[in-house]
Amino acid sequence: MSETEAVGDGKLTTLSVGEVKSLYDKNDVVLIDVRTPAEYALEHIGGALLAPMSGFDPARLPTQTEERPIVLYCGSGMRSRKMAEKYLAAGFAKIAHMAGGFGAWKQAGNGFLGTDPATGASVPRP
């Protein structure tokens, strides 16, 4: 169940994995992975964009709409929350992040793209 809190002058929404999955299945979300490029290359949610924490620039993120909100995620939810706070501090009104991060996404049995170590190709994982 989502939880919204005031952070500075903005609003930070924490979404559950189930809520993010529902938006994802309807193509109603822009997922942004804030992990390192190496973590992303190893495995990530299909269609997610990469905006690593090390060079995170809120001004470079896509424009979000009411119909397609931006949801940040990382490995556990800690880095994505920090980057969401940075986004709000940059003057944006609202942002969301996924509770539990990619670890919770995988634990829930949701699909993702992983790297085949033999070929280096991205392959779907259960």
The beta-strand count equals: 9
Q: Specify the number of helices.
A: 4
Query: Which strand-content bin applies to the residues?
Result: 25-35%
Most strands sheet: 6 strands, mixed
Radius of gyration: 14 Å
Helix fraction?
25-40%
Task: Indicate the structural class.
Answer: alpha/beta
State the separation between the terminal residues, measured CA to CA: 24 Å
**What is the arithmetic mean of pLDDT?**
96
SSE order, one letter for each helix or strand: EEHEHEEEHEHEE
Low-confidence stretches: none
Q: What overall form do the CA principal axes indicate?
A: globular
Strand order of the largest sheet: 1-2-7-6-3-5
Q: How would you describe this structure to a colleague?
A:
This protein is an alpha/beta fold and 126 residues long. 27% of the residues lie in helices and 29% in strands. The protein is built from four helices and nine strands. The protein has helices at residues 17-25, 37-42, 78-89, 101-107; strands at 3-7, 10-15, 30-33, 43-44, 49-50, 70-73, 94-98, 112-115, 122-125. It has a six-stranded mixed sheet. Strand 1 (3-7) and strand 2 form a beta hairpin. The longest helix has 12 residues, at 78-89. It is globular, with a radius of gyration of 14 Å. The model has no long low-confidence stretch (mean pLDDT 96).
